[in-house]
Amino acid sequence: MLKITEPKKVLCIHDLSGVGRCSLAVILPVLSVMGIQPVALPTVMLSTHTGGFGAPARLDGCAYGEAALEHYRELGLSFDCIYTGYLGGEAQAALAEKAFDLWPSAYKVVDPVMGDNGRAYTTVTPAFIDRMRQLCRRADLILPNATEAGLLLEKPLPDPLDEAGAQALADELAAALAPNVVVTGLQLDKYIACAGAGRERFVVKKLHIARNFPGTGDLYGAVLIGSLIQGNALSAAADNAAEFVALAIQKTPYDQDTRFGVWFEPLLPRLCPLREE
C-alpha cells in the first residue's frame, strides 16, 4: 500500500496558455503526478502561446497576483518551494520578489525566461534583464537556457560549444548570480546538454533530436523540481528531467503539428512516486 504523506507545496509563478502545452499547463500536471501540490499564480493568461498561433487573447495577471499573495499570507499558508517563470515586465517581476519576501524559507527556483534560439524576446529590455539578474541573485537555483545565460552574463557564448565550455558557463553563472545553476539547451555536437554548477558540477548529454517544440523547457523544469523535492541530488534530477523530455519528444508522432507541444500526457505515470508502508 502507498503511504500517504502531506504533499509539499510549490508556488508556481508562470504564465498560463490555454493551447500549446507550455508553462502552467505543463507544470501543474507534472508536479501533481509527482506527489507535489502546485499552487498556480498566473502572471498572464493567454489563449495560446505566442509561437505560431497569431496574436493570442491576453489578460494580465498583476492585480490578481497581488491579491492572491495577500490572501495566502492572511491564510497563513507556507510554501516549500517558489518556482518563477515567464514574467511579462517589471511589475510582474515585483510579484516574484514579493513572494520571496513573504516566504523567505522557501526553496527559490528562477527560470529567467527572456529569450531562446540566440535572441531575446521583443519585450525584453536592458532594464528588465537587470531586474532578472537581481531576482536570480535571490534564488537558490536558476534554470537559464543558453540564450538567457548569455543575456545574464552580457556576453556571447562560444560557438561551437564543447563540454568544457558548457561547464565553464555554468560555473561562471554560479559565481556571479546563484548558488546552484543548471543551464539548458546547450548544443554539443550531436548532443543536447545541460550543465550544472554549485554544490555539484556536471554535464548531462542526450542525443539531439532535430525537432523543436514549445514548452519543453517548462516540462524540463517541472520534472527537475519534482525530482529535487522527491529527494534526488541536482545532477540526478537534471538527468531525470532530460530523459523525460527526450522521451516525450520521441513519443510525439512526426506528423503532428509541433505548435501544440509534445505528447507528455501518456508518460506521466512514469513520474508517479511509489511509497511502501
From TrEMBL:
Presence of keyword Lipid metabolism: no
- UniProt KW keywords: ATP-binding, Kinase, Nucleotide-binding, Transferase
Keyword Ribonucleoprotein listed? no
Enzyme class, spelled out? transferase
What range(s) does the Pyridoxamine kinase/Phosphomethylpyrimidine kinase domain occupy?
A: 78-252
Q: Which domain of life is it from?
A: Bacteria
What GO annotations for molecular function exist for this entry?
Answer: kinase activity
Short name of any one Pfam family annotated for the protein: Phos_pyr_kin
Which Enzyme Commission numbers does its entry carry? Answer: 2.7.1.35
Q: What is this protein called?
A: pyridoxal kinase
